[in-house]
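Figure 3 (text version): structure tokens given as input.
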């Protein structure tokens, strides 16, 4: 089997002890056939031909291989005769420099597909957005779990994904608290508040699509953990993982309700502020209408400075333009226009 021209990482544990790393891609099928070996292969942006070749050697189901290469796939867990296929999404909030408001930080998702074999796991990533080093560090931090086989590898992968969901939810929660701070600030620009609310709602919708189905995925893995030869010692780890998934799902749902409340509250406050502005304008219009009506009724066209002269016309035009501009600036600062 030829080596792919994309990023490939390999690891081999023997009896729970790390023995080899970044070994030749050609030796994957050989090590997977040894009873005391545990193998991990990571393919980032794999060439379809190489993945198909690996699938033939490892007897992977063609439908699962097709799903791993597809552009869009839902979060799922499917049990086949020879392996289990998982599709999950890692999340992160992209950073921005803030110079362009239309390209502000937002949620980014990266799909990770995994073929869970009796003695190994093959992960396939369509891009490098998901930090696979975080998964590796989970395995290195708990080397005593690797003696339990594939169940430990799957747990480390799902645990890193779920923790990424938690981080994204936490950041969105902080952003929502910032919205609450400026919601009742009369000096805050209404347009910016609406823009930020829309972005958070958009990110929450995207996050909800990948977080909520994780309950079924982890639940399916827990139900079929005997297929992974998972010993009883792994049960507390998977129970804790499932608890984290439920918490992330409930947190996402509560934020969804909260951002809807903020959006509706903002609309209500805009209506209240508009009513206040209308009352102020109506009051001033009533005050001005009285002298206007009196002078108009009695026709008080008496001589004034500049009467019947060009300077009077210029002075009146300057007064009209100046007062109009002053009112415009005043109303604009109060966001009445």
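Below: residues designed for each position.
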């Amino acid at each position: 089997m030829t080596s792919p021209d994309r990023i490939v990482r390999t690891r081999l544990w023997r009896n729970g002890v790390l023995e080899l790393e970044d070994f030749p891609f050609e030796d994957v099928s050989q090590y997977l056939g040894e009873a005391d070996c545990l193998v991990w292969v990571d393919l980032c942006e794999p060439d379809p031909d190489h993945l198909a070749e690996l699938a033939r050697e490892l007897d992977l189901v063609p439908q699962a291989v097709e799903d791993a290469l597809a552009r869009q796939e839902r979060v799922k867990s499917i049990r086949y005769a020879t392996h289990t296929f998982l599709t999950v999404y890692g999340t992160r909030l992209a950073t921005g420099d803030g110079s362009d408001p239309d390209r502000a930080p937002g949620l980014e998702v990266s799909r990770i597909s995994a073929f869970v074999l009796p003695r190994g796991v093959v992960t396939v990533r369509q891009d490098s957005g998901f930090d696979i080093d975080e998964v590796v560090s989970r395995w290195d931090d708990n080397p005593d779990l690797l003696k339990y086989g594939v169940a430990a590898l799957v747990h480390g992968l799902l645990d890193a994904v779920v923790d990424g969901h938690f981080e994204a939810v936490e950041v969105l929660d902080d952003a929502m608290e910032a919205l609450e701070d400026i919601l009742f600030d009369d000096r805050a620009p209404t347009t910016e508040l609406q823009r930020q609310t829309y972005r958070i709602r958009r990110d929450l919708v995207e996050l909800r699509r990948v977080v909520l189905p994780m309950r079924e995925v982890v639940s399916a893995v827990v139900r079929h953990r005997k297929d992974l030869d998972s010993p009883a010692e792994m049960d507390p780890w998977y129970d804790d993982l499932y608890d984290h998934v439920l918490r992330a799902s409930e947190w996402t749902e509560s934020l969804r309700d909260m951002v809807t409340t903020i959006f509706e509250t903002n609309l209500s406050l805009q209506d209240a502020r508009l009513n206040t502005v209308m009352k102020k304008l109506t009051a001033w219009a009533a005050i001005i209408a009285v002298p206007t009506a009196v002078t108009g009724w009695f026709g008080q066209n008496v001589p004034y400075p500049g009467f019947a002269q060009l300077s009077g016309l210029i002075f009146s035009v300057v007064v009209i333009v100046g007062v109009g501009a002053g009112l415009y600036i005043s109303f604009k600062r109060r966001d009445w226009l």
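The mean pLDDT is 81.
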